[in-house]
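Could you please review the protein record set out just below?
***
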Amino acid sequence: MNKKIGMLIFSISFTALLVYATYEPTQPKAEDRMSEIMDKAWNEYDVLAAMVNTDSSEVYLRIEETEDEDKLKNMLQKSLKKADLEKYSIVIEKRNDPPSEKHCSL
């Protein structure tokens, strides 16, 4: 009887360990989501530079003068999760705009 209970506990523990070791969360990590959104911006708009700055909580993009800034911003707002929108601010600058002081490092 004790052997059967021991084997049952061992089997359940082994199965739980196996499930835990092979489990992958279905939700992508925040970095992966942001990377996918930046890739989408690169593919759909004429983006010259893109950066997600976690220190200042900014999504920074530099685009060609001919691109529509509002369309890009709308796409980003639709693509980002609500939590990401609360965490990050979106900064879009056009090519001929002088860089803002906080993005310029000398």
